[in-house]
Amino acid sequence: MTSPERTERLTLPGVLTAEEAALTVAGIAAVQRPDGAIPWFRGHHLDPWDHVEAAMALDTAGEHARAEAAYRWLAEHQLPDGSWYAAYADGDAAAPTDRGRESNFCAYVAVGVWHHYLSTGDDPFLERMWPVVRAATDFVLALQQPGGAIAWKREDDGTVRPEALLTGCSSVYQALRCALAAAEHLEEPQPGWELALGRLGHALARHPGHFADKSRYSMDWYYPVLTGAVTGAAATRRVEEGWDRFVVPGLGVRCVLPNPWVTGGESAELALALWVVGESDRAVEILRSIQHLRAPGGMYWTGYVFEDDAVWPEEQTAWTAGALLLAVAALGGDDATVEVFGGARLPRGLEPDCC
Fold first, then answer.
1. Measuring CA to CA, which residue among 118, 116, 113, 51 is closest to residue 86?
2. C-beta of residue 204 within 8 angstroms of C-beta of residue 229
3. Average pLDDT in the 216-236 region?
4. pTM of the entire structure?
5. pLDDT for residue 353
6. Spatial separation of the C-alpha atoms in residues 150 and 164, rounded to whole Å
7. pLDDT tens string 308-334
8. Of 55, 186, 174, which Cα lies nearest the Cα of 124?
């Protein structure tokens, strides 16, 4: 188990003590398989995005070898076109259970790899993972549409699902910035990526009509802010416009309207978004409000149906715990997490000529 001394940076009054953080880190580590894979929980599937989120949380606690094992798993399971399947069974064979290849799932490896490099300063690791990041990024950008948005997925037969999702494209935007940061560090210029990033950022900030209407979901509310696609006064307005619709005082953030269901992952991510726009006090308030989701072993229930006073579903996911640890790490000033989510030094790409 991670010692409390290693989780001192993950303390936050009313949210986590060092001992509680160590329990949470140990809970994620217990989910991780010997081959490095991190499923949602033992016996459930793994998806590449949540696998990376959990690995990043391990890095915040200094569990760098475990995080590196998670990235090694991705390198070993990357498909020839640079992608990963959307879901894999928990088991030695890691058999795919969903053969679709989702753009944001495949892009997120760049965020994790850059976060791990910033956490460790391990240049050989970055050099080993660069071909993985490059291939994944090229796969994702092959799905970019003329207006800048990224198509949701490519089916196993090669068919492209053309819907562009605001949350997914916002996540891709952050991933492209991290991929470009890695490219710059390694002196591997990628001018095509810079243009693609600028086009995607332009679409996210100015052309909401390019994306499928998923406004019932809280992620579509805060993700453009969380990932730096919408900044400044526009980000502040966006936060305020959705606050009363999605935030349930004292309980957390709804996943989807009008359901009376708050979820830990969305709440922790909103806290990160609030930190991004300088609202640290409200971020801490949100994290304190979901302490009712903390389980005795240090993990967190996925959600809570407040009209029924019921935990639902009855599962404790590695990615929910991971999102909370990342929010606490950002609030605590962890350098790697601050840089990846604060984004002050991440590339922004080339602004397109057209409007």
1. 51
2. yes
3. 98
4. 0.97
5. 72
6. 6
7. 999 999 999 999 999 999 999 999 999
8. 186
Q: Has residue 6 got a pLDDT over 80?
A: no
> By the 8 A CB rule, do 70 and 36 touch?
yes
Cβ neighbours of 257 (radius 10 Å): 14
Domains and CATH numbers, the chain: 4-342 (1.50.10.10)
Query: What are 81's two structure tokens?
Result: 């076109």
What confidence category does residue 213 fall into, taking pLDDT thresholds of 50, 70 and 90?
very high
- Burial label for 297, CB within 10 Å (0-12, 13-18, 19+), is exposed
Measured CA to CA in angstroms, residue 353 lies from 172, 191, 195 at distances of 21, 15, 10
- Find where tokens 């949602």 sit: 40
**pLDDT band for position 2 (cuts 50, 70, 90):** confident
Tell me the average pLDDT across 337-347: 97
Could you tell me if 31 and 43 are in contact, meaning their C-beta atoms sit under 8 angstroms apart?
no
Q: What are the residues whose beta carbons fall under 8 Å from the beta carbon of 268, sequence distance 6 or more? A: 286, 287, 290, 320, 323, 324, 326, 327
Beta strands across the sheet bearing 101-102 = 101-102, 153-154, 160-161
Taking alpha carbons only, the member of 79, 98, 76, 78 closest to residue 87 is 98
Instruction: Copy the structure tokens of residue 350.
Output: 């080339």
